[in-house]
């Protein structure tokens, strides 16, 4: 994502999630980096459309539900934000790994 | 271009393809599976929905219907297909649904008695068991408490998990390896029985000559086989069949999606909705009317998308997310949708029927009463024009006419676009799942399911694929 697109995404996300203490400003989260990863996994047409919309529409896009959902997903998916709300992904993974190690889940991982 | 020769080629490795491959391979056939996705190792799953959606879902989960209202329709792409990201809920096809298939689609041999051993075999293979109360989580505890207070019918769900620790992220890749999805069970068993699984192989076309199937052509590999089983899923199978020259009036039509929506309830106590099995409890009080209530929950980023509002209001609601329960309403819909391919991608047309919008209203009214009976302070229902419900008052919902455009829904169970039946004018495959008039070309995925079963469909799909494979392999079920 180019710097201009990143700034546009952050401004739009700020309008949608209105961060205020105890939640951090959008720029202090990894929302933009994660959004870039989502864009990379999106179909080409969506990717181009999302980029153009962000640059042209700015904060006005907060009225559009699917775009709002993307901003919410990417902001609230930041590890520190999730921990602040009570969810610790690392702890979940560690607990799952311990269970797998004990052999409780029988599914083997990956390619046989 | 790699060239392979097999007795059977299976396209797709989800709930339909993987069981077909395993059963055919165990019967001694040389089987090649062509799968567009990759094997997924649960040890690399991160319990972060935002990240895992981009990795495990087709098009980063951005597939949606065109119609009123627009509805997100996510699909998985991996060895194991959508089962890698599903919630693991297991229902047999209800008897009343089988009766309808016999009466309206001529599927005389689909009786509960004939299917019972097939269901047994599937459930054995994927470890189906009821969720124990201690793993069901706070979300289910709220709804169970409310349902019991009202005397409403409900129970813990049956699921395909072994050694589940309730990490709450089934829809984003189970990090403990507990969920017995197709990539962890049937696809591996197929390989053990000698099948070859070629990944990263998107099938472009199935070649049919003189009324019989000849080969499947994918990126970088061709498989010549007298038997081809198409199991690319309800939204992708019709495009593949059309590209292969199959013409049927029913192809791509009769789509049902089992639309789903969820209400949220703010409680006094911590619910921690991400702890425990997210879909662990159901309420079937209205099942005869095509309305099912089932758990749905997840980490904060997933909850954020389902939380109504924006700006300060949304933030305040998110700060209460630990105390917020959420539960889904699913509606058994009529066959109103269709799918066709545009620029190589599925275009899904679907309009919610006004009758189904009314079903959502009824489902939410019951759910709101359940939440209030469990002590909810406020209930948020995602129906346009319905204000937050407070003080146990559900009258704003009771008195309202809900139109399709008022409903905010998602859907997880697309079915029916190559449905089975005896009449070639109304169906694409026969009860043996062979495409009418094309020798050796079979379909075994959600697309063959003739009407919405009204329950989560993975076990139905697995059972139909298993039954087909046994018939093709010449007979009775091998002993498990
Ligand atoms: C979030 C979510 C939760 C769900 N929860 C439940 C649940 O709890 N219980 C339940 O019963 N159901 C659930 N479902 C639905 C269930 O998982 C699906 O109904 C089922 O997996 C469909 O099986 P299928 O074989 O039709 O397709 P899929 O499982 O989608 O498999 C199709 C496979 O074909 C591959 N493919 C597609 N095109 C090609 C091609 N051209 N070449 C090669 N490969 C191709 C795809 O990559 C995919 O792997 C859920 C679905 C979702 C999205
Ligand atoms: S609740 Fe957690 S451990 Fe259990 S199946 Fe789902 S993701 Fe796996």
How would you characterize this protein structure?
The complex is a heterodimer of chains A (112) and B (480). Chain A has 112 residues and is mainly alpha-helical. In chain A, 63% of the residues lie in helices and 0% in strands. Chain A contains six helices and no strands. Chain B has 480 residues and is an alpha+beta fold. Chain B is built from twelve helices and 21 strands. Chain B has helices spanning 17-26, 49-56, 95-105, 112-126, 137-150, 186-192, 237-243, 300-306, 311-319, 354-373, 395-398, 458-472, and strands spanning 2-5, 8-11, 31-34, 128-130, 154-156, 158-160, 196-198, 203-209, 212-218, 221-224, 227-230, 259-266, 281-283, 291-295, 324-331, 338-342, 345-349, 378-380, 389-390, 410-411, 441-443. In chain B, the strands form five sheets. In chain B, strands 5, 12, 13, 14, 15, 18, 19 and 20 form an eight-stranded antiparallel beta sheet that branches. The longest helix of chain B has 20 residues, at 354-373. Chains A and B meet through α1, α2, α4, α5 and α6 of A and α2, α6, α8 and α9 of B. Bound molecules: flavin-adenine dinucleotide and iron/sulfur cluster. Flavin-adenine dinucleotide is lined by residues 11-17, 34-37, 74-78, 81-83, 85-89, 171, 201-203, 231-234, 236, 240, 279, 412-413, 445-446, 456-458, 461 of chain B. Flavin-adenine dinucleotide binds at residues 11-17, 34-37, 74-78, 81-83, 85-89, 171, 201-203, 231-234, 236, 240, 279, 412-413, 445-446, 456-458, 461 of chain B.
Q: Average pLDDT value of chain B?
A: 96
Could you say which structural class the secondary elements and strand pairing of chain A correspond to? mainly alpha
Terminal-residue CA separation of chain B: 38 Å
Associated small molecules: flavin-adenine dinucleotide, iron/sulfur cluster
Shape of chain A: globular
Class inferred from helices and paired strands of chain B: alpha+beta
Tell me what portion of residues of chain A adopts beta-strand conformation.
under 5%
Largest sheet of chain A: none
Largest sheet of chain B, if any?
8 strands, antiparallel
User: What is the radius of gyration of chain A?
Assistant: 17 Å
As residue ranges, the low-confidence spans of chain B are 476-480
Beginning-to-end CA distance, first to last residue of chain A: 37 Å
Biggest interface reads: A-B, 53 and 68 residues
Which stretches of chain A are low in confidence, meaning pLDDT under 50 for 5 or more residues running?
Answer: none
SSE order of chain A, one letter for each helix or strand: HHHHHH
Mean pLDDT of chain A: 89
CA-atom Rg of chain B in angstroms? 22 Å
Give me the oligomer status: heterodimer
Total strands of chain B: 21
Say how many strands of chain A there are.
Answer: 0
């Amino acid at each position: 994502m180019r710097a201009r697109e990143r700034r546009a995404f952050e401004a739009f996300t700020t309008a949608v999630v209105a961060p205020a203490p105890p939640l951090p400003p959008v720029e202090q989260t990894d929302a933009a980096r994660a959004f870039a990863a989502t864009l990379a996994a999106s179909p080409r047409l969506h990717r181009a459309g999302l980029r153009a919309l962000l640059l042209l529409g700015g904060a006005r896009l907060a009225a559009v539900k699917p775009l709002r959902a993307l901003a919410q997903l990417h902001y609230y998916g930041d590890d520190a934000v999730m921990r602040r709300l009570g969810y610790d992904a690392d702890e979940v993974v560690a607990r799952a790994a311990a269970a797998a190690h004990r052999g409780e889940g029988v599914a083997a991982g990956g390619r046989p | 271009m790699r060239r392979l020769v097999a007795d059977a080629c299976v396209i797709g490795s989800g709930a339909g393809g993987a069981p077909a491959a395993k059963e055919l391979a165990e019967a001694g056939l040389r089987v090649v599976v062509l799968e567009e996705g990759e094997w997924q190792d649960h040890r690399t799953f991160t319990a972060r929905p935002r990240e895992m959606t981009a990795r495990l879902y087709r098009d980063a989960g951005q597939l949606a219907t065109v119609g009123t209202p627009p509805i997100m329709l996510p699909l998985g792409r991996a060895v194991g297909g959508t089962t890698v990201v599903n919630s693991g809920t297991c229902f047999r096809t209800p008897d009343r649904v089988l009766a309808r298939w016999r009466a309206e689609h001529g599927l005389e041999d689909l009786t509960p008695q004939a299917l019972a051993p097939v269901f047994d075999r599937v459930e054995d293979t994927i470890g189906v068991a009821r969720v124990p109360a201690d793993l069901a989580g706070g979300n289910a505890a709220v709804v169970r408490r409310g349902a019991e207070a009202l005397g409403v019918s409900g129970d813990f769900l049956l699921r395909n998990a072994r050694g589940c620790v309730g990490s709450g992220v089934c829809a984003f890749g189970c990090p403990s390896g507990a969920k017995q999805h197709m990539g962890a069970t049937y696809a591996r068993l197929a390989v053990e029985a000698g099948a070859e699984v070629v990944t990263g192989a998107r099938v472009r076309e199935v070649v049919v000559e003189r009324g019989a199937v000849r080969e499947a052509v994918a990126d970088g590999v061709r498989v010549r086989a007298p038997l081809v089983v198409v199991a690319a899923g309800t939204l992708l199978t019709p495009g593949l069949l059309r590209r292969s020259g199959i013409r049927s009036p029913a192809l791509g039509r009769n789509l049902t999606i089992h639309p789903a929506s969820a209400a949220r309830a703010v409680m006094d106590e911590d619910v921690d909705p991400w702890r425990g099995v997210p879909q662990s409890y159901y309420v079937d009080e209205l099942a005869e009317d095509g309305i099912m209530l089932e758990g749905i929950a997840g980490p904060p980023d997933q909850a954020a998308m389902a939380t109504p509002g924006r700006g300060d209001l949304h933030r305040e609601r998110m700060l209460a997310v630990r105390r917020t329960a959420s539960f889904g309403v699913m509606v058994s819909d009529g066959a109103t949708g269709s799918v066709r391919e545009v620029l190589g991608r599925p275009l899904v047309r679907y309009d919610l029927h006004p009758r189904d919008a009314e079903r959502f209203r009824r489902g939410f009214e019951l759910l709101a009463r359940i939440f209030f009976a469990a002590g909810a302070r406020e209930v948020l229902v995602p129906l346009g024009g319905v204000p937050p419900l407070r003080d146990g008052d559900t009258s704003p919902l009771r008195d309202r006419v809900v139109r399709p455009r008022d409903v905010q829904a998602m859907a997880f169970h697309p079915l029916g676009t190559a449905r089975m039946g005896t009449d070639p004018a109304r169906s694409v495959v026969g009860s043996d799942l062979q495409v009418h008039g094309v020798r050796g070309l079979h379909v075994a995925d959600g697309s063959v399911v003739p009407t919405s079963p009204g329950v989560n469909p993975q076990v139905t799909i697995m059972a139909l694929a298993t039954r087909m494979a046994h018939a093709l392999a010449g007979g009775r079920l091998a002993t498990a």
